[in-house]
């Protein structure tokens, strides 16, 4: 799996999952129309031109095909806080793509941006995403109640995070032994 900056040409690949109910079931967006997906990708591409950059959106490729995306957002530059999000096409669910995206986003957050803390949230019903966040070494911090209004009612959010020293202990030069 490789991550590269998202490009306008990626919108059709993004739409192949952003238009699916099972992908956006736990999200405030979707299923997207083509126009909504194009607007999302355009905004993600445009974010790369902002200074200081707060949003880093990437397309995830497996065997040359865009099968997912990930974003790293700087939530507070002074406090060195960030957030990661990801979405993966269902045809590659369960194959480690979400975990690989998350790992790359954490590298970029801690190594490239010098963040101190990175967090992520997921719907409590999204057990697959919670597993990904745990595999990334993130610690469950708790549940925030009624954080988003979805099509089926209010959603709670499970909050996970990892601190720079925890990430370095898992991924530093001596992490393999």
Describe the structure.
With 177 residues, the protein is α+β, with helices and mostly antiparallel strands. Helix content is 33%, strand content 34%. The protein has helices at residues 11-18, 21-24, 34-47, 97-112, 127-135, 164-171, and strands at 2-5, 55-62, 65-76, 81-88, 117-122, 139-150, 153-163. The chain has a 7-stranded mixed sheet, with helices on both faces. A hairpin with a 2-residue loop joins β6 and β7. The longest helix is centred in the middle third of the chain and has 16 residues, at 97-112. It is globular, with a radius of gyration of 16 Å. The chain starts with a strand and ends in a 6-residue tail after the last helix. The mean pLDDT is 94.
Structural class: alpha+beta
Order of strands, widest sheet: 1-2-3-4-5-7-6
Overall body shape: globular
Radius of gyration: 16 Å
Question: Could you give the count of β-strands?
Answer: 7
Strand content: 25-35%
How would you characterize the largest beta sheet? 7 strands, mixed
Series of H and E elements: EHHHEEEHEHEEH
Tally of helical runs: 6
Low-confidence stretches: none
Fraction of helical residues:
25-40%
Mean pLDDT: 94
End-to-end separation in angstroms reads 25 Å
